[in-house]
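Let's practice the habit of predicting before peeking. Look at the sequence and jot down your guess about where helices and strands might fall. Then scroll down.
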Amino acid sequence: MRNVLRNFIPVALVFSAAFFSQAQETIRIGIGTQDTTINCAAGGAIIRELNLLDKFLPHTGRYKDVHYDIIWRNFTAGAPLGNEMFANRLDIGQMADFPAVLTADSFAHAHNGVRILYISNLEGSIKGAGNAIVVPIDSPIQSVRELRGKRISVPFGSTAHAMLLRAIQNQGWDPNTDVEIITQAPEVGGSALKSHQIDAHADFVPFGELFPFRGFARKILDGISTGVTTTHGVVIRSDFAEEYPELVIAYLRAALEADRLLREDPEGMSENLQKWTGIDAEVVYAFHGPSGIQTRDFTLKPEFRQSLVYAADTLKVLKKVDPSFDPNSMAEDKYIREAFRQSGLDYDSALRNYSPLAITGTDYATHKRVGAASSVGQIWVQGESKLRLYGSPAATLTALRDLEASNTPVRVAFLHDHNTGLKLFAKFAWYVRDRSDVTAFLLKDSAEEYAQKHGGTVVAFDQAKEDAGR
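Done guessing? Here is the structure:
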């Protein structure tokens, strides 16, 4: 009997263990986010906080009895996120073109057959908006041409680093001798601006808006002036994508759902993102609201593909990437195409569409339909769930003056740069006043040039507000 039991028990245990293992198979999904880089919100914080991934993960077929171990890790920049992917502690991440190329090059050097794939855009700007150079709020510097001989910090290897180099080279300067460039993370750059340890700081989304909004910096250049496309998107380890393509598609469908929520209620989602990321809702809205600074776009447009090539070329010049590295090997759109199809969306139509989410509606005061986004303004009144819309800069500034006169607190007011359409915080803009009309600009130089050509007087915010409609 003991022999029978001795033979039976191991068999039973083996059967039980095999059954338990099959029933409890666990698949890890490691996702790296950049919460404060808020143009990644649709691929990170919104999915995580609203548990959107659970809505789309499969539970049939090969995934019938799977337990998903979803690991979320947050980073302040793309480079450390890429290091964690290289160490196989993360499978999916969000980052800009430059750190994506650096990460892909590291994988190529490993020669183990695993690659980094750039499988979807999240948000970007064909014209380069979003990256920025800022100076201390009380600095006399008004333009890049005044930075010669100055000390400038930037997160090295970032998309903002590329923008800074391009801006310096556009002045005909040598970035190695005509300026002093040091590396600083966003939070360190902010402290250095406050203490005047640096003359300027270049950074990516959202710090060119966040630092001025918080009152200690002023923007002197937006990347839109360089014309170099910038993009933040989704990267993934190729081994994970090949083994679990259904999970990759589920993640991308969750990102598309996050995009829908942002479109339907940008103010409400901006408030949520403030709670989840620490970035002020007004700054979040500047990017994710209609006609925002950047455009949420999940397609791999030719320009976004080209931004990877440009990043690689620049990094090769800096000797940060192997000369033989081919950035064209990174872009892969089959997963986002399938996510679009399963979500009932037309990828090819979206691929052809370059229009940002439009501002539509009627003027808050006149109830007349507003025109092009570049000519409208918006005011977010404290305690109101939606922004008020106005048909012109003059109408917006007049409304601001009246609200202040009635002691009504205003959270933020937006206008748009006359030349580029870039969304602006009204209080930091420059204006050209001409009789009862007023025109807004990001840069004082641009306002002065416009005034010379068309007439009018260049004024700052307070004067423009005082004069509006009078």
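How did you do? Confidence is low (pLDDT under 50) at residues 1-21.
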